[in-house]
Every structure is written in C-alpha cells, then in structure tokens.
Amino acid sequence: MIILLIIKLNIIIALSIFDLDWFKYLPIILPIILSIAFLTLYERKVLSAMQRRRGPNVTGLYGLLQAFADGVKLILKETIIPSSSNYIIFLLSPILIFTLSLFGWVVIPFSNNIVISDIDLGLIMLLAISSISVYGIIMSGWSSNSKYALLGALRSSAQMISYEVSMSLLLMPVILLSGTVNLTGIVYAQKSMYNCFPFFISFILFFICVLAETNRLPFDLPEAESELVSGYNVEYSSLTFAFFFLAEYSYIILMSSLIVILFLGGWIPLINHYLLNFVPLWFWFFIKLIFIIYSFIWVRATFPRYRYDQLMNLGWKVILPLSLTSLFISIFLLLIFINI
After folding, report:
1. How far apart, in whole angstroms, are the C-alpha atoms of residue 144 and residue 89?
2. Is residue 295 in some structural domain?
3. Could you tell me if residue 21 is inside a domain?
4. How far apart are CA 113 and CA 8, in angstroms?
5. What CA–CA distance (Å, rounded) separates 100 from 285?
6. pLDDT bracket for residue 22 (50, 70, 90)
7. What is the pLDDT of residue 259?
8. What's the CA gap between 251 and 163, in Å, rounded?
9. How far is CA 212 from CA 47, 79, 97, 252, in A?
10. Which band of pLDDT confidence, cut at 50, 70 and 90, is reported for residue 340?
11. Whose CA is closest to 177, among 167, 164, 187, 166?
12. Is residue 222 situated within a structural domain?
C-alpha cells in the first residue's frame, strides 16, 4: 500500500504540469532537441581528442552536420515490432520516457527572468519526474518479451532506485541552508558563496549519483553490450530507439543543469566586475553547464565499467552511509549556527 501511495503521489505531482501554459513551453522543445544533437557531436569530439584520434570531420564543416545525418539515418530505418510483444506498451514506453525528459525543463531557471514556470515545488517535481521514468524503462523491458530486455530493465530500475535514495539525502543540506525547494530561491541563496564549497563532499557524491541515475559510464550496466546486448532497448529500432536516445541525452543535460543550480550558483557570475556587467546572466549558466557536461564525458573516457555487484555495493554500502553522515553533520552545524 505504501508503494502504491508513493507511485500515486509521484504521478499527481508530475501530472500537475498539464496546468501549465503550453504556448510558453513549446518554444523550448526545439532548442532542447538541437542541444541534444550537438551534445552527441560534442561528446564524440571530446572523446576523440582524449583518445588521440579523429572524431566526426566529414559531414559538414568540422563535422557539424554529423549529428543531423545520424538522426535522419535513424528515422528512415524500418520500425520493427516483435511479433510476441505487447504492441501498445511497447510503443508507449519510449514516448513516455521522452515526454518525461522534456517535462523537467519546465521548472529549470536559466536566468533570473528566464524560466517557464517558477513553481515553489520545482525541486520536488524534478525528483518525481525522475522516479516516474523508471516505470517507462520497466514497461519497455517487459513489453519486448525478451529475456535480455527484461534483465536490462530490472537492472536499470534497481540502479535508479538505489541511487535516488542517496540523491534525495544529499539534497537535504542544500534545502536546509536555502530554506526553500524553489530552484530560483536556491540560486539566490548562493549569492555570497556557492554550495559546492560548504557541501563539497555532497557535491561529489551527488555527481556520482547523477552518473548512475543517467546510466552513464562507469555505471551503464543496463546497456552492457557484453552480456545484455544493449539492455532494455535491444528490441527497439528506428524512431522508437531514437526516443530512448533523445531521452537519455536530455536527462544528461537536465541533471547537469540541476547540479549547476544546486551547487554552482546557477546564473550567478563567477567573477563580479563592472567590466562584465554587459554579459547576460544566462551566459554564466551555460558556461557552468558545459563544464559539468564535459566532466560527464571525461569520466566516460577515463574509468572502466563497474560490475553490477560493485555498483550496488557502492550505492548501498558507501554512498548511502556517506550521504547520511553528510546530512547529520549539516543538521548539527546548522543547529550550532542558529544557537549562535
């Protein structure tokens, strides 16, 4: 009953976005999709530089059109639906995951006046959307009627649930210090000092949890090619696979934006100088965002893939105790500060 209640609460919070003004939301969808396309190009360029090889450099100037060529090729492929699958759930799952990945951008503030919906429960809504996406992965693995896809879906759901617990605990010190779960309010609370300095350990642990949450190396166990043949999306092709691909990279940018907002001061400038007053505030946000995304790629190029037992041990036996310790220390210091 408790699990069903949590599921219902998550769905209610996520569905509250349907009350938004969709005419304000539509203009952001195209830039997000374009940014996802260029993120794949950016990742391949950075990886090729780190591995001392040539990246995309043929299609378009410096390979700038390679992402669009790959997208067109993927869309024009034949969509294959397994004969023994559940057709409705099989086709609904990638659409659900991709749609949820776009919903999170509703509450992301890019600047002090650039945000679609500055709701008070913005951080809670992001966590709810992130947890609901697990259901889409389970649906895709089960509906494929494939042992490999089902095992990949179970891996992914267990991994995401395990690290969401630690993520929620790591957010508590930031919420306590800021006194709000509104994302804009959290940014304004960092005017004097970024949260990454007093909560440096939480910042590093949260970054590791986000890597696991987005199924990135070294934690991409749901898509381990050697034993699962790409995991929960192995039966998907063409446009249905493209939805999974777009959703994955959309979540990477979304969670990187969340890290920037929670720990790096959002749009608050790195350098306060009167000569830089002409620089728009959103510029600082995107500079920090590019740095975090670069860190994602750097980790992928550096660390080998974990075994699944190592992944779960790290989540439950290392990161979770450290998250609890960080929370208790933050509460203790906050109580001392209040008494003083």
Report:
1. 9
2. yes
3. no
4. 32
5. 23
6. low
7. 92
8. 15
9. 20, 29, 17, 11
10. low
11. 187
12. yes
> Would you state the structure tokens that stand for residue 170, as one six-digit string?
């790591």
The encoded tokens of residue 169 equal 């605990």
Q: How many domains does the chain have?
A: 1
Query: Could you list the residue range(s) of the whole structural domain that residue 288 is in?
Result: 76-339
* Selection from 326, 268, 264 nearest residue 293 by Cα: 264
Q: Note the pLDDT tens digit of each residue in 230-256.
A: 777 888 888 888 888 888 888 889 889
Q: Please give, one letter per residue, the 3-state secondary structure of the chain.
A: CHHHHHHHHHHHHHHHHHHCCHHHHHHHHHHHHHHHHHHHHHHHHHHHHHCCCCCCCCCCHHHCCHHHHHHHHHHHCCCCCCCCCCHHHHHHHHHHHHHHHHHHHHHCCCCCCCCCCCCCCHHHHHHHHHHHHHHHHHHHHHHCCCHHHHHHHHHHHHHHHHHHHHHHHHHHHHHHHHCCCCHHHHHHCCCCCCCCCCCHHHHHHHHHHHHHHCCCCCCCHHHCHHHHCCHHHCCCCHHHHHHHHHHHHHHHHHHHHHHHHHHCCCCCCCCCCHHHCCCCHHHHHHHHHHHHHHHHHHHHHHCCCCCHHHHHHHHHHHHHHHHHHHHHHHHHHHHHHHHC
d(CA 260, CA 126): 14
Residue 26 lies in a domain: no
Instruction: Give the pLDDT confidence of 99-111 residue by residue, as tens digits.
Output: 888 888 888 888 8
- Residue for token digits 């446009």? 239
Cα pseudo-dihedral 227, 233, 237, 241, rounded to 10: -130
Q: What pLDDT, on a 0 to 100 scale, did the predictor assign at position 11?
A: 46
- What pLDDT shows up at residue 27? 67
* Mean pLDDT of the residues in the chain: 80
Residue pair 196/143 in contact by the 8 Å Cβ criterion? no
Place of tokens 């605990």: 169
pLDDT, tens digit, 9 for 90 and up, residues 94-144: 888 888 888 888 888 888 887 777 788 888 888 888 778 888 888 888 888
Under 8 Å between Cβ of 316 and 161: no
